[in-house]
Amino acid sequence: MIRRVGAILAGGVMLAVVTGVVTGAAAQGICPTGVARDGVWFDFPDRSVLTRVLSDGRVEEIEFGHDGSYMYVYRALPIGLVVESWSIENGYAPRNEEETVSFLGTPNPVPDPMAGVRYDGISTLRFGDGSESRATVNVVVGEARTVDIGGCSYTAHDVAVTRVDLDGGLPQNDAMLFLPDLAVTLFLGFSEGDVPPEDALPLSVSLTPPRPPGEAGGGLGAGAGVLPPPLPQLGGGAEQK
After folding, report:
1. Are the C-beta atoms of residues 111 and 129 closer than 8 Å to each other?
2. Which residues are within 8 A (CB) of 197 and not within 5 positions of it... i.e. 6 or more apart?
3. Over residues 212-239, mean pLDDT
């Protein structure tokens, strides 16, 4: 699922039944632990994501589409709100694909994720062409629970984000998951209006890139499973206010 923050998305998520493939659990090797400074890989049905915690505490995600059609980079606050993003095309980052976001709200600054935390504010999204869009943003962090990703078990907190453009339109909803053991917040899915966002967990987590289907250690791959519509993104150079 493409996490483009500025995109206007069609509602609905398509699900496909997966049979006759190696599951993420079967392919799972060593379970990563500790702050993901050196990067941790998560494999989804439609994409693989390299996630790491930067020196300033922000979380960087690099998304690779299993069909080879896209590569996106996101940098987000610890709670999961993206502050900059861009695409990579032929080794370059086109300026018109950059997006940056700043936030102003309560509490200020945007809080770190923990059980019961809530944030209410206004986001200002700046596109590569210089245009802007503003929206209300509401974030709620859920209580701790245990999740299984492949063969690995982690403590996790659901993070629900709702954005409403100040110029009108349907609410846009993000489902995310904060993993305190790794200090990363993962994007899971998106929806519009009253439709709940798709929030399927990754198929596996590893210290090395996932293998293609059919190779030793390979799991679910391109075309297998969820192929949802594109998602919201952000660009390069946002600041938190």
Report:
1. no
2. 13, 173, 174, 175, 188, 189, 190, 191
3. 46
> What pTM did the predictor assign?
0.79
Query: Could you give phi then psi for residue 117, rounded to 5 degrees?
Result: -70, 140
Q: What gap in Å lies between CA 2 and CA 212, rounded to an integer?
A: 20
Give 50-80 pLDDT, tens digit per residue.
999 999 999 999 999 999 889 999 999 999 9
Q: How far is 154 from 177, CA to CA, in rounded Å? A: 11
For residues 214 and 221, give the distance between their C-alpha atoms in angstroms, rounded to a whole number: 9
CATH top class, domain 40-206:
mainly beta
At residue 8, does pLDDT exceed 70? no
pLDDT tens digits for range 29-40: 689 999 999 999
The DSSP result for 14-63, as a single string, is ------SS--HHHH--SPP-S--SS-EEEE-SSEEEEEEE-TTS-EEEEE
Torsion, Cα 219 207 58 80, to 10 degrees, reads 30
Q: Region 129-141: what's the mean pLDDT? A: 95
In Å, what is the CA distance from 240 to each residue of 34, 133, 152, 237? Answer: 26, 16, 34, 10
Give domain limits for the chain.
40-206
Residues 88/92/96/100 CA torsion (nearest 10 deg): 60
Question: What distance in Å separates the CA atoms of residue 233 and residue 98, rounded to the nearest whole number?
Answer: 9
CB atoms within 10 A of CB 223: 13
